[in-house]
Amino acid sequence: MKLEITQSAKEKLNEIPNGKIMQLSLDRGSCDIVNNLYEIKVVENRESDSTENIIQSDDLTFIIDDDFEDLYEHELTIDFKNNFFVFKNKNQTFNNRIGLRYV
């Protein structure tokens, strides 16, 4: 997956403590295909399982599930505006009100 993180998003994500990584996975209970991710989960650093991939972008580490990659067409830009993360790719903005949740 091609993952780009804007400077404003990097600044916010760099506030996450060491030993933690970000997990991006779909809300499988949502019927809204565009806005089915509402949060970036901050979890303890761990290995990925058979349905996940680890993606590095700059100094940031993400665990991303296979369904997530397919939905976003293997290309995602994460931005940070108006106190929320924004997920978009070259074709559209998917969700502009994504928060962080520490698990």
Concise overview:
With 103 residues, the protein is mainly beta.
The figure for the number of domains is: 1
Along the chain, the helix and strand elements come as: EHEEEEHEEE
Q: Tell me the CATH architecture.
A: Sandwich
Low-confidence sequence ranges: none
- What's the pLDDT, averaged over the residues? 87
Number of strands: 8
Helix tally equals 2
Structural class: mainly beta
Determine the strand fraction and express it as a percent band.
Answer: over 45%
- Which sequence of strands runs across the widest sheet? 1-6-7-8-3-2-5-4
Named CATH topology: Hypothetical Protein Aq_1857, Chain: A
What would you note in describing this structure?
InterPro entries: ATAP_core_dom, HesB-like_dom_sf. It holds the Pfam family Fe-S_biosyn. Residues 1-100 form the Core domain. It comes from Rossellomorea aquimaris. This is Iron-sulfur cluster assembly protein. With 103 residues, the protein is mainly β. The chain has a single domain (2-102), classed as Sandwich (Hypothetical Protein Aq_1857, Chain: A). Helix content is 13%, strand content 48%. It contains two helices and eight strands; from the N terminus they run E-H-E-E-E-E-H-E-E-E. The chain has helices at residues 7-13, 66-71, and strands at 2-5, 20-24, 39-44, 52-57, 60-65, 75-81, 84-88, 93-102. It has an eight-stranded mixed β-sheet with strand order 1-6-7-8-3-2-5-4. The longest helix has 7 residues, at 7-13. It is globular. The mean pLDDT is 87.
